[in-house]
């Protein structure tokens, strides 16, 4: 049976050793148990924690075969978890060629020029997920600029559901002044108000781009090797578990092979991608098929926990669905004063999808950024909660950036879990504050309000491209994320963004440990360092509880243990 080996390896390992394999002592162990206890020593046998407590008590458990690790007072804490990544796609970004860091439109145009010199005429050049809000000029490269950079190549500058195309790319995609969106999906083509010709900018309809792959194509072994390299890099920053949002069957096959070869260094809880265009009956059937997957609620190393889809656009592209109009914007190329963004799924269709997932015991989540989209999804959860066990399903809101006092209250009551990326606050506050103004961002990532009210929020990165914790799009260094939640400070932005929503250090640590474990249905196994739990833990060079706050973003992992195995050592 397919996956039989993977499922068998997912099962708990039973240890028959006569005593602990490893004892950490002379340490500051942050257990992240309900009391947030601090201990001095911990014993590990096989892949389980068998004791946590005082040094003298734990050392009595040692045998002649026990490895003793004197940490000299170093901080130990549970392995960190990233609640939302796209690992398999991210790992392949630079397979064919490196992509430099881009902070300006000129950097973007230089990339297209360089690729045009490398590729044969007519081959596509596609640059993805370099968001205009993170460029100093805060705009798209124009159709004319792309034409000048690479006139003999179809060029696409794609930022999620939106893109800027040059003349040849528009022509090859069949997009002209008479083009209309006709498939029932969202989006539109921007047109020059004087000439009626396409400007080159596509809003929420990049599905119409007829691009082809250019350059070297990976083999299955190439994919395996690069994804494993990325997962090992996760280990280097203390990540021992990931929530992989939007997985495909190919992704699961790859993770399964790693597990069978005992090379998987992180736990993977997967949300299976579900398309939402087409007959609702077919969408519901596709959701039911996910609940029949062999890895549905599999073992603690690899499991499918639910389904993921896309409810609205993005805040980085000016297409998130807002409760009030965005406002006219040169940055986002918005000229309609009543424009509120794009909602991809009508409410009644969304209701049917969430109902089906709930009936199938699946966790449901959707890419949901704007406060209008968050309100729509939360209202669906609320309506179904009157007749269905919504609170047991641990349904999520992926991103949940813009909220309101009302949705915060409902999210906490329904026990819905926002999967939030603090690095977005760090990278994008300058643009958002410039467009919306400080006051309208009062409920942007309101983490303190959610947690103080008794809610659960899971931290993450939405890592999409490149290997490297700080060079990635988006950066997956959890210590940058923690620092951001503590300071509410941002790149290229003076001051703090609503510091009343800043977290305590304990809350920031829980955000990347036990809270993520709960989102992944793994809180009985990982997320805290307690007797009987699986041995996922890290050793740091910095005391996150007492160091100056700015030292937290520079903290380094000295050792990472996953399932009792040392998977990284600095």
Structure commentary:
The chain has an 8-stranded parallel β-sheet. Strands 3-2-7-21-22-23 form a 6-stranded mixed β-sheet, with helices on one face. Strand 12 (188-191) and strand 13 form a beta hairpin. The chain contains 18 helices and 23 strands. It folds into 2 domains: 83-87 and 220-523, TIM Barrel (Alpha-Beta Barrel), CATH 3.20.20; 96-208, Diaminopimelate Epimerase, Chain A, domain 1. The protein is globular. Helix 1 (4-10) crosses helix 8. The protein has 570 residues and is an alpha/beta fold.
Kindly list the characteristics that best describe this protein.
570 residues, alpha/beta, TIM Barrel, Diaminopimelate Epimerase, Chain A, domain 1, 2 domains, 8-stranded parallel beta sheet, 6-stranded mixed beta sheet, 18 helices, 23 strands, globular
